[in-house]
Amino acid sequence: MQPQAKRKIQISFLIRNGSVESKHRGFVNSLQFDPITRNLFSAGSDSVIRQWDTAATSDSAAFVRSLEHHCDWVNDIILCSDGSRLISASSDTTVKVWHTRRNGACLSTLKTHKDCVRCLAYARDPAELVASAGLDKCIYLWDVNTLTKVTATNNTVTTSSLRGTKNSIYSLAMNECGTVIIAGSTENLLRVWDPRTCQKIAKLRGHNENIRAISVNRDGTLCLSGSSDGTIKLWSIGQQRCIGTVRCHSDSVWALQTDAAFSTIFSGGRDHRVFRTSMRNLNDSELLFIERKPVQKLLLVDADRPKQLWVATWDSSIRRWPIDGQSTGHAEGGGPRVKEAAMELHGAPSIRKYAVLNDKRQIVTRDSEGNVELWDVMQCGRVSTFPAGTNMEEVIKDNVRKAWIPSWFSVDAKCGVLEVTLDESDAFSAWVSARDAGFTDKANDAKVNYGGLLLRSLFELWPHAYAGDDEDSPLQGFYSLPLHTPILIRHCHDDIVRPLFRTTVHDTASQSDSAMLRDVLPAWVLQPHSSFIPKFPVKKDRLSATEMLQLRKVMEHVWEKILYPAETAGDDGGGGAGTAHSLATQLLENIEERIELFCNDQKLDSEMDLRTVKHLIWKQGGDLLIFYRPIK
Prior knowledge:
It is a single chain. By secondary structure, the protein is mainly β. Among the domains are: 248-347, TolB, C-terminal domain (Neuraminidase, 6 Propeller); 351-526, no CATH class; 551-630, no CATH class. The chain has ten helices and 42 strands. The strands form eleven sheets. A five-stranded antiparallel beta sheet has the order 34-35-1-38-39, covered by helices on one side. Strands 2-3-4-5 form a four-stranded antiparallel beta sheet. It has a four-stranded antiparallel beta sheet with strand order 6-7-8-9, with no helix packed on it. It starts with 7 loop residues before the first strand and ends with a strand. This is WD repeat-containing protein 48 homolog. One of its GO terms (biological process) is double-strand break repair via homologous recombination.
């Protein structure tokens, strides 16, 4: 029997420029439209769901609010309960229920899935049902009426599961009547169930690659599937066979929409193209328009009278395209029928490349528009923005300094912004001099711990935070982080990262979040270290010291203990002791002008520490060998 893997708790935070993220960063994965309020909901790879007023005259006025509670990509969303509730599925393994008309509050979190949740399906009549599926190969069926009544005290939810899928599920659909549910997976086939009995009805074979999109008609007799093999297939569920194939795309098909009558197909995918195809002639498809990036999602504003189509892509912007009701033939020259979008909700650039500098504090980034910026982890903010066209490698080179500091955090940018993560295994490994950390009022030999300082900054407002000696704390007046900074607490087990709690620096002071933090924060965060400014003893017989010792101290040791021990010891007679002490103090203040230190024939800077010399200059095992030479 193998030993059980240890559960680890990680603390992460996001570095953002502003308190409100009004624009998407990165892919937009899913869209929903509320015909009552004319509001559009969009979900993307930046972990945020956004609400837009499509009646606004500009995209800046269109932003209503952001719904933030997920810790990873939001892959799919469904509107239900007449638009008053929104259900979301995320790569953070959770399904969440939101109140769309009460400040976008997150009402409950479902943690039934064990891996990334990729897709949702919805049935409206006679009872509202939602199904969820993902990479854990499981499909769960939820009663919407039950989900909307879940509270913090009444949080027991029962669910039905549909069994039989052997591979990760990437697409899911359910007819409006809730009599058929269909899943597409990397098995390259469709599986069909009756959600009323949870019994499997059929398997539909014919695709050669993963099935990424499914649409089913109202009575559950016909369905469409779009695949990575570039085809769209029309299936008869009763006959359990393919009755037609559309081959208009040159690459993977990722998005499908049909009108209410199930007579017209709208499709998009990796080739950037959006086509319209009549069910009466699957061999004749009309190119409507060409998007800038691969198409992720299509959404008809009115399926009964389709005249407008919202499109989400790998771009961070969302566009609404005008489409007429019926196809009137192909555009001249075989080009797209529509040249320009009618409305665009502009997105923001996302970070695509980053490099942690060797000071293990600053990070250089380049975003999707080529902008190069410098960020400070300790201050959780941007330090510099460089002119357009700046070479990232040159910025890195200009900001590198000669120092070796161990890694104490990890970085990711999968959500379009920098996400910094602290782990108990190395969070407290970076000790640096207080002066290097920016505390110029501290003694030369004072040391601070980056991880300890940062944790104190993150939880500065938390009533139960570790207090220490506040008067002497290095945090006084320094490293106070932006209040909007999101804090993510997760646990890792068997390579699966699952969220425990999400808050902000500001909200750690609230009664509800404060109580939750007491339950989820690990002990290594509650008591990071007994002292932030340790004292390290130095033996007199030889220099046996911590690797954090600065070379200035080594110089002083050489002067006092090796070169001139008698002079620095003082004199007991005639008041000479005071004079000798004054002279020794003056000499030590200018020690760099009196002694030189060398390692591997390279002159050493007095501001270096032994750790830097060992890793960057000595570069070998055994005792570190340093040579000294008095300056005449």
